[in-house]
Amino acid sequence: MGGLPLQGATSALALPGTGPKQNQVSDASAPTPESKPKKKICCACPDTKKLRDECIVQHGEEACTKWINAHIKCLRAEGFNV
C-alpha cells in the first residue's frame, strides 16, 4: 500500500506541472511560435535597414518612403508586427 499513495502523489504532482491541460495549452500555442519572430528586430533585415538608414541620413525621412516601406515589408515577412 505504500507504493500506491506514492504513485497517486506522483500523478497528482504531474498534473499541475505537466498534465494534459498544459499539453493542450502548448498545442494551442503551437501556431504562436511560428508567428513569433526568430530574431530580434534590431538584427532582422540588415540590408533594408542599412539602405533605409543611409537614405534618411542623407535625404530626410520624407524622401525615403520607398526604403522605409521595403524595410517594413521585410520585418513583417520575418514575423514582426510593425
Automatic annotation (TrEMBL):
Instruction: Name the source's superkingdom.
Output: Eukaryota
Q: Bias regions of kind Polar residues — which residues?
A: 20-29
Q: Cite a single GO MF annotation.
A: copper ion binding
* Protein keywords: Chaperone, Copper, Disulfide bond, Metal-binding, Mitochondrion
Give one Pfam family, short name only.
COX17
Q: Where does Cu cation bind?
A: C42, C43
What's in the GO CC field? mitochondrial intermembrane space
Span list, region Disordered: 1-39
- Localized where? Mitochondrion intermembrane space
Segments traversing the membrane: none
- Family statement drawn from the similarity comment of this UniProt entry: Belongs to the COX17 family.
Supply the PANTHER family for this chain.
CYTOCHROME C OXIDASE COPPER CHAPERONE
Q: What is this protein called?
A: Cytochrome c oxidase copper chaperone
**Source organism of the structure:** Trapa incisa
Q: Write the lineage as a comma-separated list.
A: Eukaryota, Viridiplantae, Streptophyta, Embryophyta, Tracheophyta
